[in-house]
Amino acid sequence: MRNVITAVFAGALTTVAGVASAQDDGTVKTATATLMGAEGAEHGSVTMEQTPNGVLLTLDLKDVPAGVHGFHIHETGKCEPDFKAAGGHFAEGKEHGMMVEGGPHPGDMPNIHVSDSGALQQEILNTAVSLNEGDDGFLMDEDGSAIMIHSGADDYKSQPSGDAGDRIACGVIEME
Q: Which of 68, 53, 61, 69 lies closest to 16, judged by CA?
């Protein structure tokens, strides 16, 4: 399977060849989220690495239903059985969707496309979020943030969350 790097630049999607990752002091800030389903089944992980150009998310998913799914960062780092505790998308005052004026939320990312195997390996560069305290889009405030997979595709325009359906997998983002 070929890895794809997808970049989110203020609403435009671009594929990039590579990304630098070291901070000024030579360290790299990283975080992870283990995605769990509502029934407690593990669905893989998302690792996050701060780069000079945003946060590189590396998805390594398993046992996810085949199809197209909304994939977002949510505003609160809590994943409880119905995943409502994660709140809405990480929005920072922006509208939802890559296809709307005033959007997208920093937590809006491209849909993921899961094959019949239920597995997916993909990289996504989100230039609107950060693991660096003090930066715009800082994900690790007092209540943290979560990664969410929805049951359906995000239509990239419906407010407030893209009409992506139920929340089927959630993972709290934890700094390493």
A: 53
The per-residue DSSP string of 39-102 comes to: TS-EEEEEEEEEETTEEEEEEEE-SPPSEEE-EEEESS----TTSGGG-SB--TTPPS-TTSTT
pLDDT at 124: 97
Amino acid at 107: G
70 with 153: CB under 8 angstroms? Answer: yes
pLDDT at 103: 93
For 132-172, what is each residue's pLDDT tens digit?
A: 999 999 999 999 999 999 999 999 999 988 999 999 999 99
Distance of CA 98 to the CA centre of its chain: 14
pTM recorded for the entire structure: 0.86
Residue type, 75: E
Give CA–CA dist 95/101, Å, rounded.
8
The two beta strands, 174-175 and 30-37, are: antiparallel
CA distances from 48 to 34, 89, 161, 174 (A): 11, 17, 22, 10
